[in-house]
Amino acid sequence: MIYILEDDSSILELIIYALKTQNIKSKGFINYDDFLQAIKDKKPEIIILDVMLPGISGFEILDTIKTNPKTKNIPTILLTALNSEYEKVKGLDLGADDYITKPFGVMELLARIRVILRRLDSKDNAIFFDGLEFSYKKHSVSIDNQKIELTLKEFELLGFLIKNPDHTFSRDKLLEEIWGYMYTCESRTLDMHIKTLRQKLGIWGERIKTIRGVGYKLEKTNV
Fold first, then answer.
1. Which of 20, 31, 120, 158 has most Cβ atoms within 10 angstroms of its Cβ?
2. pLDDT truncated to tens, each residue of the chain (223 aa)?
């Protein structure tokens, strides 16, 4: 079940219809009070949250969701007409899984939702890889029993590479797999995530190799 909080009824109806065509159940809300009560009654799998709402900012709502132990793990997609880099960074720093600007393409929205649903549907057990433990269930990463704090996209990127060791992926392929669509003009987004991932993983991160002119791969052995 996906909950959508959007005060524009035409956009809300469009999203609900698009999800219905994919056999994805959803429930729409025009105002925050009804949305809040619904979450208390039953937690959704994903939240799609408009930012510019009457009387309250979507950023405030996101902060409330992510600071509440009962709801902090619910994946949240921000949907907004605010398209500055500052606004995007603010939303992602508050814990949003994704940030989509209006006007948006329905197919793009569905692609990004599928990325999150694939992660939620993953039944993999913990992966142990030469001192590193990666767990989808616990949403945790540790090296030699020391926990490593990763952002959501860093976590998903590492998980994808670990499950496909010694396989070289193009930037476009990684962007499609992790972000859900082709980030054709923003490959630096991937490069920045690779850089910070390597830094956080320390020596272990040296396994993530740059294949010049192609993309990246994770080597089974660090040589």
1. 158
2. 999 999 899 999 999 999 999 899 999 999 999 999 999 888 998 999 998 888 888 899 999 998 888 888 888 998 888 777 777 778 888 888 888 888 888 888 888 888 888 777 765 567 888 889 998 777 789 998 899 998 888 988 999 999 899 999 998 888 888 876 544 445 677 888 999 999 999 999 999 999 988 899 999 875 4
25 domain-assigned: yes
Instruction: Write out the H or E segment, with its range, that includes residue 63.
Output: helix 58-67
* Residues 44, 150 share a domain: no
Q: Is the pTM of this model over 0.70?
A: no
Distance CA 90, CA 169 (A): 29
Cβ-Cβ contacts under 8 Å for 109 (sequence gap 6 or more): 15, 18, 77, 79, 100
Domain co-membership, 37 together with 102: yes
How many domains is the chain partitioned into structurally? 2
The CATH number linked to 209 is: 1.10.10.10
Task: Calculate the CA 100 to chain-centre distance.
Answer: 12
Statement to judge: residues 18 and 112 lie in one domain: yes
Tell me whether residue 33 is in a domain. yes
In the block, which residue shows the tokens 């269930």?
A: 137
